[in-house]
Write a structure and sequence with these properties.
Elements (H helix, E strand, L loop, with lengths): L9 H21 L9 H15 L3 E4 L2 E3 L4 H8 L1 H18 L8 H26 L6 H28 L6 H33 L19 H4 L1
Antiparallel strand pairs: 1-2
Helix pairs in contact: 1-4, 1-5, 2-3, 2-4, 3-4, 3-5, 3-6, 3-7, 4-5, 5-6, 6-7
Length: about 230
């Protein structure tokens, strides 16, 4: 899903850069309401997990591979605003130090992976949690559903951007078919990973999961001094 440098023309890249900057700016202000001294460390762990997860590619056929986007996962664990910041930081580090995505395409990648995937993934999660039984057990299921939809949604938005400012001589219809086809398969893998990770976290500390707020009792924070 990482868009490389030069794949979209300059006006489109600048436009997505403006959208990304605005989205990150709003997220910086809104994230304060999602974090406290108990949940703030989770944001760092989520960013580290997504960074590592995006380094692992799994084959989906015809020489194509996919990797974790992490938008829905981050949003469910730490909240949509903080989740968007986590993914943005990962993309910034990858663009600066690993040449993954490129700097001129950083705005595009943040728009797709940190904003679209988070908004769609968390939106679907909220809808599913509203119709599923009101219990902690429903959280991983709803998270997996959000992850499944978020990946092809980001692919569809990329196709729209390509139709507006793509530099390659490829028909938009072919791009849409390829992107939605393969990213639906990738979305299944994303859903499995997201469901398993969220399930593992809610099984041990549901009170630290943003998407489980109101469903789990708050547990006391135990320090080494208190334990002694």
């Amino acid at each position: 899903m990482h868009v490389p440098d030069g794949f979209l023309d300059a006006p489109t890249s600048v436009a997505t850069g403006v959208v990304a900057a605005a989205g990150v700016g709003i997220a910086l202000r809104r994230a304060r309401a999602e974090l406290d001294d108990r949940t703030a460390p989770m944001a760092g762990l989520v960013a580290a997990f997504v960074f590592a997860g995006q380094m692992i590619n799994f084959p989906v056929g015809a020489g194509t591979s996919g990797h974790l986007l992490g938008g829905a996962l981050a949003a469910v664990l730490v909240g949509p605003w903080t989740g968007a910041l986590c993914i943005s930081v990962v993309l910034l580090v990858q663009g600066l130090f690993m040449a993954d995505g490129g700097l001129t395409a950083l705005g595009t990648n943040i728009t797709l992976l940190a904003l679209i995937s988070v908004v769609v993934g968390y939106g679907v999660f909220v809808l599913l949690r509203a119709v599923l039984p009101r219990s902690v057990a429903s959280v991983p299921i709803a998270a997996a559903g959000g992850a499944l939809v978020s990946v092809p949604a980001a692919a569809a938005v990329f196709t729209l951007l390509f139709a507006i400012g793509g530099t390659a001589d490829v028909a938009t219809g072919k791009v849409l078919t390829a992107m939605l086809g393969w990213h639906t398969v990738i979305g299944i893998g994303e859903a499995v990973v997201t469901g398993l990770v969220v399930s593992a976290v809610v099984a041990s500390r549901p009170d630290l999961v943003h998407g489980a707020r109101g469903l789990a009792a708050r547990r006391p924070l135990v320090t080494s001094e208190a334990a002694a």
